[in-house]
């Protein structure tokens, strides 16, 4: 009922303009004769290609039918619509002889090369349909490698399939199976004319699908004229050319009601980029802050608060690392264990504050006179351990003497002025890592050397190159 009303409205609206149009066709005598002699014009259309052409309540309806009636109005032909299109395409060329006109939909360039095709009466964009989550398709090239369904019985299908071999084409018999595959996520998308695709999606409530871009070339709808009927083609061309823009739009609006995205939703993209950026920078800031805190914590856990040198734990770790490296790669190293002389006296006579200052001064001398690669740690109360990687025995001895001399230069000022200024000195035990050494044997050897230095009168070093119980050699 609704369809009938639609047709009646469209036809009545054209009736008056058509009367005027008939005279404005400027048909030749030959053409007028043709119409008189072949007044019954059989037009073959598909019965299942909405909204272009289909059957409703036993009647032919759709865009093609409306245009056929318009042509009849203008030319005086008596149109007989027949649903023979599929039959015509699938059987012998002779079958086509049954139809004076049949509908055809293809790219403009293809139609121009077809001597039987009339001028197009309508154009429709060819659009891509995907699930809602897919990004807007700017170009068909973005579909290379993807599975795309196409209805193979339509005229435009083969030219498109041949032109884009990089697309995995899924040929289907009708729109329903193509769209259903997309909805079920079996394939990436479907390509088809906007008019039929849009209407199908709306009528079948595919809420998870959207029309998501269009192919650069439109589909042109035209008629194919029966063989050897050039006069008929001329008449139909004149009639089609005589249909004005408003009439075409009226038919379009009567049958096609589709809204879709013609371009990427830039606002949405901008919002996504902004939200994404905020989220990213938030995470980055959090990562940097956490990392800084982690680094600070690590530093605190490895540093002696008073002297700012490595603490015992870190120094021990470094010692184990260098011992392993020596065993595996032969990276030689020496250690220097030093202890401030008579530190108890300093504390007792000058107070702990001055004692602390003495520790800081010694630590500064050590830092100033060692290499960057040396590890300097506070080993105990007034004891320090220096690890000297890749340092020859001779260089280690030279360095120890230099440290001793520089510590000797430190003067503890007497804050009460009652006592003389105190000269700080330190004693040193020096040794070199040997292949048979353990962490313990190395430290014990350095400690023995240090004790020997103390025994021998302090402010000196004793070096023991190797061997736990070897004879101590005093330099
Ligand atoms: N001010 C201060 N004193 C400390 C610190 N750590 C350890 N001491 C003190 O250093 C002193 C070490 O004394 P001893 O072990 O007898 O050694 P010493 O007096 O240096 O004698 P020798 O080693 O034989 O020269 C003790 O009085 C400790 O309390 C510290 O961080 N600050």
Query: Shape from CA axes?
Result: rod-shaped
Q: Which architecture of the largest domain would the CATH scheme give at its second level?
A: 2-Layer Sandwich
Structural class: alpha+beta
Number of domains: 4
Which ions, cofactors or small ligands are bound in this entry? guanosine-5'-triphosphate
- Helicity level, as a percent range? 40-55%
Q: What characterizes the major β-sheet?
A: 6 strands, mixed
Separate helix tally: 17
The portion of residues forming beta strands comes to 15-25%
Low-confidence stretches: 13-21, 87-93, 469-475
Task: Provide mean pLDDT, rounded.
Answer: 85
Terminal residue distance? 119 Å
CATH topology of the largest domain: Alpha-Beta Plaits
Let me know the number of strands: 21
Corresponding CATH superfamily of the largest domain: Reverse transcriptase/Diguanylate cyclase domain
Strand order of the largest sheet: 15-16-14-19-20-21
Keywords: Membrane, Transmembrane, Transmembrane helix
Enzyme class: transferase
Catalytic activity: 2 GTP = 3',3'-c-di-GMP + 2 diphosphate
Domain GGDEF: 331-466
Keywords:
six-stranded mixed beta sheet; 4 domains; 17 helices; binds guanosine-5'-triphosphate; single chain; D-Maltodextrin-Binding Protein, domain 2; alpha+beta; 475 residues; five-stranded mixed beta sheet; disordered C terminus
């Amino acid at each position: 009922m609704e369809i009938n009303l639609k047709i009646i409205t469209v036809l009545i609206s054209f009736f008056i303009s058509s009367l005027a149009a008939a005279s404005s066709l400027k048909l030749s005598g030959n053409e007028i004769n043709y119409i008189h002699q072949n007044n019954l014009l059989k037009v073959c259309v598909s019965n299942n290609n909405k909204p272009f052409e289909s059957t409703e309540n036993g009647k032919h309806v759709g865009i093609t039918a409306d245009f056929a009636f318009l042509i009849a109005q203008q030319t005086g032909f008596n149109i007989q619509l027949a649903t023979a299109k599929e039959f015509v395409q699938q059987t012998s060329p002779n079958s086509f002889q049954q139809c004076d006109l049949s509908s055809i939909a293809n790219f403009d360039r293809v139609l121009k090369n077809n001597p039987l095709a009339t001028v197009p009466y309508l154009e429709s964009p060819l659009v891509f349909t995907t699930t809602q989550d897919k990004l807007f398709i700017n170009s068909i090239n973005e579909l290379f490698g993807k599975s795309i369904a196409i209805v193979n019985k339509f005229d435009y299908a083969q030219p498109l399939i041949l032109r884009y071999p990089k697309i995995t084409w899924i040929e289907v018999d009708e729109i329903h199976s193509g769209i259903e595959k997309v909805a079920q996520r079996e394939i990436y998308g479907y390509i088809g004319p906007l008019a039929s695709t849009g209407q199908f999606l709306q009528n079948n409530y595919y809420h998870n699908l959207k029309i998501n871009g269009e192919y650069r070339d439109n589909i042109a709808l035209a008629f194919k004229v029966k063989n050897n009927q050039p006069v008929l083609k001329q008449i139909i061309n004149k009639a089609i050319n005589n249909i004005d823009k408003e009439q075409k739009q009226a038919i379009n609006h009567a049958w096609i009601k589709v809204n879709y995205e013609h371009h990427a939703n830039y606002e949405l993209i901008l919002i996504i980029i902004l939200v994404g950026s905020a989220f990213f920078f938030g995470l980055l800031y959090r990562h940097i802050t956490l990392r800084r805190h982690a680094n600070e914590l690590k530093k605190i856990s490895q540093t002696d608060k008073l002297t700012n040198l490595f603490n015992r734990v870190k120094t021990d770790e470094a010692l184990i690392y260098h011992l392993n490296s020596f065993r595996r790669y032969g990276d030689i190293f020496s250690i220097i264990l030093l202890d401030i002389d008579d530190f108890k006296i300093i504390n007792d006579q000058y107070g702990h504050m001055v004692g602390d200052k003495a520790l800081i001064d010694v630590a500064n001398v050590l830092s100033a006179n060692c290499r960057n690669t040396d590890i300097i740690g506070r080993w105990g109360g007034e004891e320090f351990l220096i690890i000297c990687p890749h340092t020859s025995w001779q260089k280690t001895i030279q360095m120890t003497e230099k440290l001793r001399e520089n510590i000797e230069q430190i003067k503890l000022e007497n804050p009460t002025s009652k006592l003389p200024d105190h000269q700080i000195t330190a004693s040193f035990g020096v040794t070199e890592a040997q292949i048979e050494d353990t962490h313990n044997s190395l430290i014990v050897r350095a400690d023995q050397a240090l004790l020997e230095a103390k025994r021998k009168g302090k402010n000196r070093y004793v070096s023991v190159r190797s061997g736990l119980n070897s004879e101590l050699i005093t330099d």
